[in-house]
């Protein structure tokens, strides 16, 4: 007798465990329009067909599922006529369909999540109805004298309708962050081109729901997908901010406008129409001084053919630079940084070593860089001939 009692208890425990991981769906069609009903699961953005059932003469049908996390399912009679369920393991869901189109008229019992989805659909449907009504009214007056008087009123009503829908969805999410129904609220659309949540600030609601669901359901595909979507949206927001900052930032152009030894500013772009060697040097560098002796010969050869040198000194002492220019008799354009310590022009050009140079064509485009000795001579010979 004890063995039988123990066996009976074991069966009850097994049955209890099974029920906790099972979902039962029982439904009834009040009309006789349909013969078959289909069950599918929504795996994030993919529909997976699971089962089908014949609808009995009395309108009844049933499905049984197993699962470990809340999931979205669809009960459908066609690809365009369906009801979305949010089923939690252990639930016994009862559906009653009273209309020809099952998505329009149905009642649900035993599934809190599905009831919440239905409530979201009802509110959104009312918003869409109001917007359609406003559009119809606008079309009526669009070609009439009344347009001027009504246009602003209709536009304000439209904005208010959108705002009310958004506020309703926010209120729902804040009250249901533990529910997967909030995922549906996040992705609701008023039409193909208008989402309820569209502003970058709305990412905060994606984060709230994502953090909550991933904490409670770390293995859920739906929760993981929401997290990926949030991270993607966050990255896009940061990129947009960077792009916007770049658009609104003051334009930085590589067009030096520095003072020569006489204190006169010389704008680099004023030399367009010539081949220009933009050279960075310092009089304290023996290598730079030696290269300047080579430049003197090249400048003498090609100046009359349209060649110019615009040489920027990185000397920290202006007097030292001026003495070097005069002593070495540098006849090309010699200028110095406005701030010799920070050397902003050299930073813009990413100068790491000296001597360094860029060669520009007559249109002001760079056609060579870091050209020295024979390489510079060869390039100038190609441009001007022997």
The share of residues in helices is 40-55%
Annotation field: number of helices: 10
For the sheet with most strands, the description reads:
7 strands, mixed
Strand pairing plus helix content: what structural class? alpha+beta
Mean pLDDT: 87
Textual characterization of the structure:
- The protein is of the alpha+beta class and 386 residues long.
- The protein has helices spanning 2-20, 112-141, 147-175, 181-186, 203-216, 221-248, 286-302, 318-327, 344-348, 373-384, and strands at 22-29, 36-43, 46-54, 60-66, 71-78, 81-87, 92-97, 106-109, 189-191, 194-195, 257-260, 265-267, 275-281, 307-313, 333-336, 356-360, 366-369.
- The strands form 4 sheets. A 7-stranded mixed sheet has the order 12-11-15-14-13-16-17.
- It is elongated and about 110 Å long.
Secondary structure topology:
Layout: H1 2-20, E1 22-29, E2 36-43, E3 46-54, E4 60-66, E5 71-78, E6 81-87, E7 92-97, E8 106-109, H2 112-141, H3 147-175, H4 181-186, E9 189-191, E10 194-195, H5 203-216, H6 221-248, E11 257-260, E12 265-267, E13 275-281, H7 286-302, E14 307-313, H8 318-327, E15 333-336, H9 344-348, E16 356-360, E17 366-369, H10 373-384
Parallel strand pairs: 1-7, 13-14, 14-15
Antiparallel strand pairs: 1-4, 2-3, 2-5, 5-6, 7-8, 9-10, 11-12, 11-15, 13-16, 16-17
Helix pairs in contact: 2-3, 5-6, 7-10
């Amino acid at each position: 007798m004890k063995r039988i009692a123990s066996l009976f208890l074991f069966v009850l425990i097994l049955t209890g465990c099974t029920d906790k991981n099972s979902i039962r769906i029982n439904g009834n069609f009040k009309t006789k329009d349909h013969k078959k009903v289909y069950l599918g699961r929504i795996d994030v953005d993919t529909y997976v067909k699971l089962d089908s059932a014949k609808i009995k003469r009395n309108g009844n049908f049933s499905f049984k599922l197993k699962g470990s996390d809340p999931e979205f399912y669809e009960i459908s009679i066609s690809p365009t006529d369906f009801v979305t369920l949010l089923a939690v393991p252990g639930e016994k869901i009862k559906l009653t369909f009273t209309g020809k189109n099952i998505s329009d008229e149905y009642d649900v019992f035993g599934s809190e999540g599905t009831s919440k989805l239905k409530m979201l659909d009802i509110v959104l449907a009312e918003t869409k109805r109001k917007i359609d009504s406003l559009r119809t009214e606008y079309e009526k007056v669009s070609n009439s004298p009344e347009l001027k008087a009504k246009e602003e009123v209709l536009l304000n009503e439209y904005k208010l309708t959108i705002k009310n829908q958004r506020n309703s969805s926010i209120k729902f999410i804040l009250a249901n962050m533990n529910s997967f129904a909030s995922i549906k609220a996040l992705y609701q659309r008023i039409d193909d081109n208008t989402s309820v949540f569209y502003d970058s600030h709305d990412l905060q609601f994606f984060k709230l729901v994502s953090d909550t669901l991933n904490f409670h359901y770390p293995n859920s595909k739906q929760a993981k997908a929401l997290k990926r979507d949030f991270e993607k949206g966050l990255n896009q927001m940061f990129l947009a901010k960077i792009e916007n900052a770049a658009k609104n930032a003051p334009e930085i152009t590589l067009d030096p406008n520095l003072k020569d030894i006489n204190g006169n500013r010389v704008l680099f772009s004023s030399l367009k129409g010539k081949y220009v060697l933009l050279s960075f040097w310092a009089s304290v560098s023996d290598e730079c001084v030696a290269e300047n002796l080579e430049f003197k010969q090249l400048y003498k050869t090609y100046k009359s053919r349209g060649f110019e040198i615009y040489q920027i000194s990185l000397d920290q002492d202006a007097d030292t630079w001026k003495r070097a220019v005069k002593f070495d008799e540098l006849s090309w354009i010699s200028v110095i940084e406005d701030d010799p310590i920070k050397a902003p022009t050299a930073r813009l050009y990413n100068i790491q070593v000296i001597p360094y140079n860029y060669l520009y064509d007559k249109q002001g485009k760079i056609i060579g860089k870091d050209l020295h000795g024979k390489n510079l001579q060869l390039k100038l010979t190609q441009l001007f001939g022997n």
